[in-house]
Give the backbone structure.
Amino acid sequence: MIYPKENSRLAEQILALGGAFVSEFPMGTFAAPQNFPIRNRIISGMSAGVLVVEAAEYSGTRITARCELEQNRDVYAVPGNVTTKNSWGPNTLIKQGAKLVATWEDIWEELPADVTVALTAQTANESSGAATASLFPDQTASPHERRILSLLKPDEAIHIDELVERLDPELSSSEIFAALFELELNGKVKQLPGKNFVKSF
């Protein structure tokens, strides 16, 4: 079953764009808590690595990161404020040897050669228009990305803490980090030193 149910539309979009549902459970299985770690193991197994932006001490993200290590995958983490409970996961992972990430280039440089070659070839085949830094075929900004772009300026940097404050409670910090990451991949946003952001165009 789609969980939470608000994600039903997203699930339909994934299928419409050529994606798939992958699960060890039969269709219609209830989203029971004990099934999530099994789901996380599949996610990690299908990935070249995992990027942890936020994770509390007891969270599914922590389980996914542990699975990544057990499966000999790469684990990346974005450091966070030590006084924030959701920063416990990434900060602890960095202490344990996860690769610290500040920009998308930090991940790109660490990817195996065969992965970067495949992604580069895929991107070249899919984008006949203007070139961007995105690794993904869909260049349409999501509502979260559009909301962040509406606050950013090309000539005036905004610190990540100010963005989080101005968008609270409209967006969670994890949603903001994820949207910024995608915007940076697409070349629409540039990160300056000190976690300051500007619009790239």
Summary: The radius of gyration is 18 Å. The first helix runs from residue 8 to 16. The domain at 135-199 is CATH 1.10.10.10 (Arc Repressor Mutant, subunit A).
